[in-house]
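pinned: reference chain
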Amino acid sequence: MRLLTVFGKGIYLMANPHPDEQVLYGKIRDEEIKVPLVIWDLIYRYLGDEISAITQITVSYHRYNEVIPVSDAKKILEHIKKINVIIRKILHHDRIENENEKLDELKNYNTPLHPVINELFFHYIGNDVYGINMIVSYHLDPLDESPIPVEEAQKILNKTFTMKQFMDRLREATHQEVKF
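pinned: its structure tokens
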């Protein structure tokens, strides 16, 4: 567990490591597995933007020790929906039907993610996105909507920071310089 300071407050990053993380990163190194640049572009351009938006909403309240109001909690859910769409399109780019979709550059890309990358990506990104969705959805129960408490905002921040850290670790492990 690592302590990160954000606006003078300590945030503990508590990502549960993948049980075979070292083995998988070893395979990436030994087999020189890469992430296709079109995928990196989508990860940083779209996925990264959505994660940053969730972080900004959450930090804007957390730094003042305030609850996240229902209106902004709903915005977080909208960003989660967009992340899920992006993930589905990265995973199943062969199913993109609409020529006007933002991710149409994937239509001409016909190689799936390497299974090792896929496993790590969806362990970290998938689990954290699901966790944020569960936290926010719990408080947006249609029968009793309530703001997100400060302690839960901390959990959301932990998950967004963990996702960003994973993307950086994966980029470093694949020895790819991604410039946008």
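why pinned: Residues 1-14 have pLDDT under 50 and may be disordered. The CA atoms of residues 69 and 145 lie 10 Å apart.
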